[in-house]
Write a structure and sequence with these properties.
single chain, four-stranded parallel beta sheet, two-stranded antiparallel sheet, about 35% helix, binds zinc ion
Amino acid sequence: MAHDPQCAGSRPCGAPARPGSDPPRRPPQLCGPHAPPWRRALAQGLRQGAAFLRACLATDCPLCRGAARGARLCGECARDASASLEGMRRCPRCDLPAFAAMRTGAAAGPQAQAGPAGCGCPLAQAPFEALVSGFEYRPPADQLVLRLKNRLQLSAAGALAGLLARRVRQAPWAAQPDWWLVPVPASRASLLRRGFNPAAEIARRLSGELHWPVRGAWLRRVREPRAKQTRLGRRQRQLAARDAYRAAPAVRGRKVALVDDVVTTGATAVAAAQALREAGAARVVVLAAARTPAPGGPADLAK
Ligand SMILES: [Zn+2]
Ligand SMILES: [Zn+2]
């Protein structure tokens, strides 16, 4: 029997190999978007099964130590945290209460414009169409952000994503299909300090909640900050964040939901969204685990 040079069998077929012939080639391996539909469906099924098992596990509520499931907040703590954003009309572009957005807009100067809520929105000119946050950054839920970022407790990312998902589901644009989650890239210094990017951890857990895919490689940092963001004012933050990010050509025509941990002035979100729009993203929204209250907002007025 003649040896077939195309034979890729692992055992010898009896015929001598032809001198100088190439070793049998393995069939090309496919991955990611090129994988056959059955493999993508299997991977999605396994991911959803794992998310279901995680959600069923009994754990302690990270804030009150009461009974909860899957490292999330208990019902009472989740309601309290979400209530920080309820009860007053909020601007969909900057996610501040409309009256607080008016004051912040006045402080921001001429760049503030009439926002979608009729307020003097400080982000009316932002290159994203909406900002949605999980809760207002104040006690006790701010502990979740501090645990993730300062104490490196990755389980806090699950509770943050749960709160954020609750609010995203209420947004009218979220009912449309084909949104992709893109975390804001961390600076090299913070990656070295923590060993992970908090925004990427939140995006990963949020993907489990919303079943939207995450694409971390679609946005990268091309310039490192000179000073720590928390020490800078609004204008300095804008200058520090400008041209700091570059988006991959793969974002062209996509609907991108940019994920960050805390939005304060919005300077980082503006710079990252700008990079996405310049690379051709069709739509950009910003999802923040927490939103700092505006100066003059309810937290300030209560003092
Ligand atoms: Zn609780
Ligand atoms: Zn606004």
